[in-house]
Amino acid sequence: METAWIQVFILTLAECVAPAGKTVCQEQHFELQFLSQSDCEYALQQLIAAKSGAADVIVNRQKSGCAPSAMQATTFASLESINEAHKDTAGWRMPGEEEARRSTVTKDHQDRLAELMTCEETNNVMPCKVGDIIVEDATGESVEVWKKD
Asked: Nearest 5°: phi and psi at 41?
């Protein structure tokens, strides 16, 4: 096990969000990391499309984008060595197992997308879709909110 620098792509979304009923918005930025530029660009397009439908959000496209960067990460000599190092870690899955699960999730998601009309077509009556994002109505159950301190 060694450490190495790997290339990542940083998605930055700059937006200005106004509280309900207010005309002044507050600028905020958030970042996500991706291993491929195409994944980063796709996520950026989807986020901008989803945010542009909101009445209280303005996305600054000049300050939003995907930029290459690097991060230091642990590297392993083989799949067997990473499996040996993490086999007792809760939730560990060997690479490849996730791909099989993801393809099932992707197929289910695509099937559901095909069934739904766009939010524009339904006048924002949910469930509906914005691009490849499914917009669901609140279930009435309590939702756990996570905040970064």
From this structure: -65, -40
Structural domains in the chain (count): 1
In a domain, 102, yes or no: yes
Q: How far, in Å, CA of 134 to CA of 113, rounded?
A: 7
Cβ within 8 Å of residue 6, ≥6 positions away = 35, 70, 71, 72, 73, 75
140 domain residue, yes or no: no
Residue range 61-116, pLDDT digits in tens:
899 999 999 999 888 888 888 888 888 888 888 876 655 555 666 778 888 888 88
**Of the candidates 112, 143, 126, 134, the residue with the CA atom closest to the CA atom of residue 50:** 134
Degrees, nearest 5: CA angle 91-80-105:
40
| Residue 20 structural domain | 2-80+95-135
* Cα gap 59→32, rounded to integer Å: 16
Record the pTM. Answer: 0.55
Q: How buried is 9 (Cβ within 10 angstroms: 0-12 exposed, 13-18 middle, 19+ buried)?
A: buried
